[in-house]
Amino acid sequence: MRGRARALRAAPLLAAVSGWLVAGQALAHPLVEEGRERMQLAEFDAALEAFARAEDADDLSRDDLIDLLDARAMVHLATSSREEMDRDLSALSSLDPDHLFGPEAPPELSDAFADVVASSVGSLTVRGSARPVPGGIELSASVEHDTANLTRGTRIWIRQGSGSWRRASERLVTLPAGGTVDYYVEAIGPGGALIARGGSRAEPLHSEAAPGDSAAPIRSDGEGGGVGIWLWLGLGAVVIAGGVVAAVLLFGGDGGGGGTEPNAPVVIGF
Question: What is the pTM of this model?
Answer without folding.
Answer: 0.68
